[in-house]
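Exercise 7b. Backbone tokens:
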């Protein structure tokens, strides 16, 4: 009888230990009225441990060649996970890139990444900045070796992916798990839709201007789209960046760039793929009267908007309702202070 009881206790203990070691699922909540995300959660199930690991990796300069640059160096939470200090991204050894760092917001709904859509899956997106010579300039093999020798990451990877060897696919999956949770859905605009806030007269008029002139590309509720558009910007003669044409080699894709989200646009300056505009007023002026209407410009922009000064003020007032302070200050997204 004592033997049976001992075996039962042992079995229960081992079962409890197994349960304790199993990563805890994280429920990804889709805001009411939003479309179904494109991200395939079945291939990378979210867990609390996986997200925690990704969060540590996101803020760790260990991923760069000389361990001075992290993902967060160019994607700051307070600015919508964008980079506001420079027109163009600044990477390792202060090397200057060729594009403005994009905001990392609501990535689960993206079908492609980067300004030119050159990457089609979030689970491999991190490879580009980690290995790019103007960004983190690291050898993937060296990064994995560092992680395998690091006691903290040994524990974090084991918690997130029990029994698996630290590898680049797991590194990318962990980063994806953290980044996919960066959901912004509690701006004044969202609160207005839920009946928790009422637009001011200026915001309401600006919303009408937006719907009439901007909404076809920056579609609600994400205020983005999966498309690439030519928005009439003249070619930057120094950068000579032809956008999506670099990926497709098709002339009709010349100067096509992805339609970025406008959520938290108040804080994600400078604007455009090359950061040429410093404020929203400059952006609105461009769309109102500064478009280079050549043959490849998107059809929605062939004609000037002819907004009055009051219209432009109202439109900017509405765009500011897309700011989500609860997202910009969410402690779940901040630098991890826990020791693990």
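Sequence design result:
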């Amino acid at each position: 009888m004592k033997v049976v009881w001992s075996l039962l206790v042992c079995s229960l203990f081992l079962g409890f230990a197994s349960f304790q070691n199993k990563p805890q699922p994280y429920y990804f909540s889709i805001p009411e009225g939003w479309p179904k995300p494109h991200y395939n959660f079945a291939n990378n199930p979210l867990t609390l441990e996986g997200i925690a690991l990704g969060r540590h990796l996101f803020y760790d300069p260990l991923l760069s060649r000389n361990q001075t640059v992290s993902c967060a160096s160019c994607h700051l939470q307070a600015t919508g996970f964008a980079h506001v200090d420079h027109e163009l991204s600044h990477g390792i050894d202060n090397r200057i890139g060729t594009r403005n760092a994009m905001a990392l917001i609501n990535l689960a709904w993206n079908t492609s990444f980067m300004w030119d859509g050159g990457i089609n899956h979030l689970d491999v997106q991190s490879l580009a900045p980690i290995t790019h010579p103007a960004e983190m300039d690291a050898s993937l093999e060296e990064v994995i070796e560092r992680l395998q020798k690091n006691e903290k990451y040994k524990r974090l990877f084991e918690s997130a992916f029990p029994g698996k060897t630290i590898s680049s696919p797991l590194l990318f999956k962990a980063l994806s798990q953290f980044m996919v949770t960066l959901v912004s859905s509690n701006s004044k605009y969202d609160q207005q839709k839920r009946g928790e806030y009422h637009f001011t007269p200026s915001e309401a008029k600006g919303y009408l201007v937006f719907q009439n002139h901007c909404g076809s590309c920056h579609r609600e509720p994400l205020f983005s789209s999966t498309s690439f558009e030519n928005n009439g910007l003249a070619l930057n003669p120094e950068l000579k960046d032809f956008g999506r044409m670099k990926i497709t080699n098709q002339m009709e894709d010349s100067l096509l760039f992805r339609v970025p989200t406008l959520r938290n646009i108040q804080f994600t300056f400078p604007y455009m793929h090359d950061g040429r505009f410093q404020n929203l007023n400059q952006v609105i002026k461009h769309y109102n009267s500064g478009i280079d209407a050549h043959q490849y410009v998107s059809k929605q922009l062939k004609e000037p908007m002819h907004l009055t000064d009051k219209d432009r003020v109202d439109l900017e007032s509405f765009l500011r309702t897309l700011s989500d302070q609860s997202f910009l200050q969410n402690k779940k997204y901040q630098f991890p202070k826990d020791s693990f």
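Instructor comment: DSSP finds 13 helices and two strands in the chain. The CA atoms of residues 35 and 109 lie 8 Å apart.
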